[in-house]
Backbone:
């Protein structure tokens, strides 16, 4: 049987479509835009962080799996904020350039230098079309999201842990000017109190919880405490690991500041919160009034 002209065209069309389908099926998948890791460090192994801005330097060290500020002062660091800073180690860029002609990227004098262990990042200007930031790392300049620079603190106060006690600091004894309590498993026992009031068991339990969760409304460097603050005593906290925390108690007309002797930081509280921290009987009174 002789194949007609239309039949031949149909056969050619079917063969062409089949070949195209086979090509598409076996064609290697497109990889899209390449991504470049800007660092090889692991956040879990980092031991030090240094942040340098004009006229400001902050250094941090990891000790016993906890972060501490070491410059310009010694204090416990906010672990969540450190975690955000270290997120840059997982950053990837889709554009990178040789580490040359730094003025083009605003990197002749970087806005801020971040050093994580031995890896340094210099933060420069922004790309006008994408609003991504130029960051020097290793032998390249990368374009990455600006959120990594926003994670860096504007001042040292931004990195200080505002909690009076860290989760690893478990209190077992309190000594205040007119009150003392000590933990004897399974209960807390009052060993000293003023004769004009009695601390209830519920108030004592609430008071211990308040100490374990208290966060300062504001942090003040000791060198910046005003002359209106008057020191009124000392408070001692014995910890489960045998260590002791000493705190100076300072008052002014509107707040109470507790200064940890092992740091250079004043933890400022409104008068009501401060009074509750210094006297569990005020919590007992609040229970009665409610």
Residues:
């Amino acid at each position: 049987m002789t194949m007609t002209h239309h039949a031949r065209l149909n056969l050619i069309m079917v063969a062409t479509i089949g070949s195209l389908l086979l090509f598409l099926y076996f064609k290697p998948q497109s990889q899209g835009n390449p991504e470049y890791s800007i660092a090889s460090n692991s956040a879990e192994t980092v031991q030090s962080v240094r942040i340098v801005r004009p006229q400001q330097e902050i250094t941090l060290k990891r000790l016993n799996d906890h972060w501490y500020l070491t410059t310009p002062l010694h204090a416990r660091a906010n672990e969540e904020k450190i975690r955000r800073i270290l997120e840059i180690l997982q950053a990837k860029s889709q554009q990178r350039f040789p580490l040359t002609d730094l003025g083009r990227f605003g990197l002749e004098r970087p806005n801020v230098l971040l050093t994580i262990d031995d890896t340094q990042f210099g933060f420069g200007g922004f790309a006008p079309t994408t609003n991504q930031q130029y960051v020097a790392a290793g032998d390249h300049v990368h374009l990455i999201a600006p959120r990594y620079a926003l994670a860096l603190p504007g001042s040292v106060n931004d990195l200080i842990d505002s909690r009076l006690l860290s989760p690893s600091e478990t209190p077992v004894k309190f000594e205040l000017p007119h009150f003392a309590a000590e933990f004897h498993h399974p209960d807390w026992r009052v060993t000293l109190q003023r004769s004009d009031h009695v601390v209830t068991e519920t108030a004592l339990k609430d008071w211990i919880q308040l100490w374990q969760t208290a966060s300062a409304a504001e942090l003040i460097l000791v060198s910046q405490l005003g002359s209106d603050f008057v020191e009124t005593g000392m408070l001692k906290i014995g910890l489960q690991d045998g260590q002791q925390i000493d705190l100076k108690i300072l008052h002014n007309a509107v707040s109470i500041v507790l200064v940890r002797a092992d740091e250079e930081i004043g933890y400022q509280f409104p008068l009501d919160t401060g009074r509750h921290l210094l006297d569990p009987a005020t919590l007992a009174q609040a229970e009665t009034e409610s």
Summary: The mean pLDDT is 88. The first strand starts at residue 36 and ends at 37.
